[in-house]
């Protein structure tokens, strides 16, 4: 049956169409920034206008926030108008948002948080004459009100993080608000508003977000919470209450380690929940929300669309997200191992018992962990295994960074991309972590005895917990953890230093790991520890020492070029290489553990004797040039380069074997095979070493260079986080669907 013709009355030509109705949110904010809204009228009416203004805010904060339009409203206003006619209006907006953080309606709370974040983000992008002071007065109303305003803003939002009944979307918005404030400047230490986080302590509320009972909620919150803690831990302008908390033995390490391990796992992996941590708990935790709100805590709104694995864009996006998560885990691990006394003790470094039989979890079943009954040592050991796997992948990617930076046709060096710079910073941070761990002799002892295969790993964690492969000719079946660490450091030192990519700091940090392991094998007063005095040596049979001799000699060969010594950090790098060789020569039997390894080291020295001679000559020429320069300028005398290259033990080895090798008919520099034959024929009897240089004798201290690495990696993290994750917040209104 055909449809009847439409009535002529209902027909309308295109010329008579009415203009589309404006979105109510857009219409209201258009009036607000035109100074013709109830906000301005209520101010003119005084007390009589307060009742109508209350209804106005109640209605406005129920409307879905149009982020693009609100951001455009602030971005399009010039700075002089924001601090002039619009100052009171902007202040009223912030005051209303802060006031509604304690509202019983979570829709208003979420929209207040989202509005505050958008306004702050756009205001931070403005350029005022006195940036910090102007922004504080614009947001808080005046300098006198700033303390109370920001204390209430941070305190009220922190209470939301600690509430069990608050939806996960609200908690995500709180963390994004914190990140907006903390990232107002490239360096958190130059951020005047960040100082208010050290008046109102949010450590426990942020950690409580990491303790969400539902794994899906915890997964959604953990990256944002980790970034907030990382930025707060970088504060140096005043006593850092967050660092002090981590330094306490009673610091809440379990949720932090739980999050570290989760961040290291693949993006699609959700650790199994503990007993009782299921959807029922999610519904019970909704508390005062009740009704339809109470069924959506673990999955607010519709699930995100599944990525199509067949498309390269989807795969690249997944890889980028996982790299961002793992980088956050690396920085958080650094602060944990650097600050926490528990992670420097045998309480964490021990073979964990069966997780299902842990008495600690049974005594405190409320502690959220990714599996039933996991102890702190099990969590840390499994996270450490995943960290070693990450180190291997991060160091393996470095040759791609090196190869990508070539000299262009006009001779100019090609700069590293932002992603490549982040890869180098991530590798440096991993090396800093390994050094801090290896400074404790008791931990060295554990790592030497512990077979890497015995480190626990979560089931189905995939490549995230795969140990580095044994790509070298090692005959032993066991693979001590310490040998893996030495292998990882040697992998970094194996990178070719020639070419346009020269980062001496990267090589120096790898050498510092090796030096720290060697020094930590001895007691405080020079007494050889059990780890070094055993028949199998420091790293047992699991490490190929010859690789280390080769890469150290290669670095000395490269540094022997005068042009190389002029580059920043190369002199210290070469001096450290020589010092490691000098030290191991003096302590060879105790460190290497066998006569064969000692002979191999001596043979390597003999086959590279011209390399060390060239390095000494280059250092002397460089010293002469600097001395002449300082003499002309009349400035203070420069330190002697030759004093940094004390090759007494290297010279002793050469003098001991050179006659024997010459008697064998070898002319010039012997090959390694010829040198080995001469060493074995001569023997080590009568060889006396003249010095035991102190390498890495000082304890690790976080200095300017370390802070620069951490700040740089944090900036790269925040940039990637904004690009990849800031569109993942579901609208609070989706809870009603």
TrEMBL record:
Stretch list, region Disordered: 275-323
Write down the InterPro entries for this protein, in alphabetical order: ARMD3-like (IPR039868)
State the organism of origin.
Answer: Klebsormidium nitens
Name the chain's protein: Uncharacterized protein
Out of the domains of life, which is the source? Eukaryota
One cellular component (GO) term of this entry: cytosol
Here the segments flagged for biased composition (Basic and acidic residues) are 305-323
């Amino acid at each position: 049956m055909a449809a009847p013709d439409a009535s002529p009355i209902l027909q309308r030509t295109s010329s008579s169409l009415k203009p589309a109705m404006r979105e109510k949110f857009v219409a209201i904010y258009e009036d607000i920034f035109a100074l013709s809204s109830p906000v301005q009228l209520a101010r003119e009416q005084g007390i009589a206008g307060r009742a109508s203004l209350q209804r106005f805010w109640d209605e406005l904060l129920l409307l879905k926030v149009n982020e693009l339009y609100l951001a455009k409203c602030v971005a399009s206003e010039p700075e002089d108008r924001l601090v002039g006619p619009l100052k009171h209006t902007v202040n009223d907006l912030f005051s209303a948002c802060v006031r509604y953080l304690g509202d019983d309606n979570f829709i208003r709370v979420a929209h207040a948080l989202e509005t505050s974040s958008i306004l702050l983000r756009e205001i931070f992008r403005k350029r005022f004459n006195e940036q910090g002071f102007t922004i504080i007065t614009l947001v808080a109303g005046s300098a006198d009100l700033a303390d109370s305003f920001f204390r209430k803003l941070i305190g009220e939002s922190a209470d939301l993080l600690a509430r069990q009944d608050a939806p996960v979307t609200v908690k995500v918005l709180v963390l994004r608000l914190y990140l907006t404030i903390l990232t107002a400047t490239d360096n958190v230490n130059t951020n005047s508003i960040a100082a208010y986080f050290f008046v109102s302590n949010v450590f426990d509320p942020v950690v409580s977000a990491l303790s969400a009972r539902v794994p899906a909620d915890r997964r959604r919150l953990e990256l944002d919470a980790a970034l907030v803690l990382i930025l707060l831990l970088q504060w140096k302008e005043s006593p850092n209450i967050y660092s002090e908390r981590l330094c306490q033995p009673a610091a809440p390490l379990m949720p932090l380690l739980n999050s570290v391990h989760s961040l290291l796992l693949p993006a699609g992996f959700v650790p199994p929940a503990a007993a009782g941590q299921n959807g029922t708990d999610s519904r019970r935790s909704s508390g005062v929300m009740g009704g339809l709100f109470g069924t959506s805590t673990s999955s607010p709104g519709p699930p995100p669309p599944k990525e199509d694995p067949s498309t390269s864009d989807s795969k690249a996006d997944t890889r980028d997200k996982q790299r961002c998560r793992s980088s956050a885990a690396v920085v958080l691990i650094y602060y944990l191992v650097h600050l926490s006394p528990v992670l420097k003790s045998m309480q964490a470094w021990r073979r964990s018992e069966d997780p299902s039989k842990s008495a600690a979890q049974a005594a405190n079943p409320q502690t959220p962990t990714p599996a039933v009954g996991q102890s702190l040592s099990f969590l840390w050991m499994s996270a450490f295994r995943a960290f070693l796997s990450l180190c291997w992948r991060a160091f393996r990617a470095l040759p791609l960074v090196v190869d990508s930076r070539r000299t262009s046709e006009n001779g100019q060096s090609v700069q590293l991309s932002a992603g490549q710079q982040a890869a180098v910073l991530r590798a440096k941070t991993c090396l800093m972590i390994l050094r801090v761990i290896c400074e404790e002799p008791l931990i060295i002892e554990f790592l030497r005895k512990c077979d890497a295969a015995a480190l626990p790993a979560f089931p189905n964690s995939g490549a995230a917990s795969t140990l580095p492969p044994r790509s070298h000719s090692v005959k032993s079946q066991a693979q001590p953890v310490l040998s893996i660490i030495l292998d990882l450091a040697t992998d970094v030192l194996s990178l070719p230093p020639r070419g346009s990519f020269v980062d001496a700091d990267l090589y120096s940090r790898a050498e510092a790991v090796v030096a720290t392991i060697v020094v930590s094998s001895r007691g405080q007063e020079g007494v050889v520890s059990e780890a070094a005095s055993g028949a199998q040596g420091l790293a047992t049979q699991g490490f190929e020492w010859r690789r280390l001799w080769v890469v150290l000699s290669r670095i000395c060969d490269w540094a022997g070029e005068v042009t190389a010594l002029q580059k920043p950090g190369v002199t210290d790098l070469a001096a450290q290489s020589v010092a490691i060789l000098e030290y191991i020569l003096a302590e060879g039997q105790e460190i290497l553990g066998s006569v064969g390894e000692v002979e191999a080291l001596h043979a390597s020295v003999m086959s590279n004797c011209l390399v060390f001679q060239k390095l000494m000559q280059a250092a002397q020429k460089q010293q002469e040039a600097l001395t002449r320069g300082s003499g002309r300028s009349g400035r203070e005398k420069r330190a002697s380069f030759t004093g940094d290259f004390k090759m007494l033990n290297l010279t002793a080895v050469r003098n001991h074997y050179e006659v024997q090798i010459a008697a064998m008919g070898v002319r010039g520099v012997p090959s390694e095979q010829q040198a080995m034959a001469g060493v074995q024929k001569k023997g080590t009897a009568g060889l006396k070493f003249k010095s035991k240089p102190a390498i890495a004798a000082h304890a690790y201290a976080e200095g300017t260079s370390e802070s620069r690495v951490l700040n740089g990696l944090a900036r790269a993290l925040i940039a990637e986080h904004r690009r990849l994750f800031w569109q993942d917040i579901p609208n609070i209104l989706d809870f009603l669907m």
